[in-house]
């Protein structure tokens, strides 16, 4: 059962999602919703997105992405953190990639009023240059913040 959450201004970045009641660890908080698009359709519409540092596209599988710019819900406002309290879980529909979905689940207890976050796990094919790291800057403020939402390539520190 989805937990009570609300969108409001975030100290991390723009909008955020906050718990309105205490949320225990290990529960479904929200489903990430939006228009289902193929990667080709998303690239045509948004031009790949790696240069903007802002996207509501969530890679679902090798064939599809969820475009929360169209038909999205509050889950699209959940910000990235290097020390998250939630995680994105892919729920596969065996044999039907269009039926796959993303659930945001708490990974620890979350207090009422606390902002929900998860690690976006952004990977880019292009080099993680200083310019790209600046475009994809992390503002989570966690003690272990890496300064970027980009994930290291192949376990290396880019």
Could you characterize the architecture of this molecule?
With 158 residues, the protein is mostly beta strands. The chain has a single domain (5-120), classed as Beta-clip-like (Beta Complex). 9% of the residues lie in helices and 27% in strands. The protein has two helices and ten strands, in the order E-E-E-E-H-E-E-E-E-E-E-H. The strands form four sheets. The protein has a three-stranded antiparallel sheet with strand order 3-9-8, with no helix packed on it. Strands 4-6-5 form a three-stranded antiparallel sheet. Strands 1-2 form a two-stranded antiparallel ribbon. A hairpin with a 4-residue loop joins strand 5 and strand 6. It is globular and about 40 Å long. The protein starts with a strand and ends in a 23-residue tail after the last helix. The mean pLDDT is 89.
Short account of what is shown:
The chain is mainly beta. Helices cover 9% and strands 27% of the residues.
Features:
single chain, 158 residues, mainly beta, Beta-clip-like, 3-stranded antiparallel β-sheet, 27% strand, globular
């Amino acid at each position: 059962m989805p937990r009570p959450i609300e969108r409001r201004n975030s100290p991390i970045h723009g909008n955020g999602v906050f718990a309105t009641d205490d949320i225990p660890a290990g529960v479904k908080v929200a489903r990430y919703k939006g228009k289902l698009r193929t990667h080709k359709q998303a690239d045509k519409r948004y031009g790949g997105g790696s240069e903007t540092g802002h996207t509501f596209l969530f890679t679902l599988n090798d064939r599809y992405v969820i475009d929360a710019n169209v038909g999205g819900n509050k889950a699209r406002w959940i910000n990235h953190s290097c020390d998250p309290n939630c995680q994105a879980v892919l729920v596969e529909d065996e044999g039907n990639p269009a039926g796959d979905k993303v659930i945001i689940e708490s990974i620890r207890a979350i207090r009422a009023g606390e902002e929900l976050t998860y690690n976006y796990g952004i990977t880019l094919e292009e080099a993680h240059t200083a310019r790209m790291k600046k475009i994809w800057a992390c503002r989570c403020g966690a003690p272990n913040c890496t300064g970027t939402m980009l994930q290291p390539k192949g376990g290396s520190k880019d």
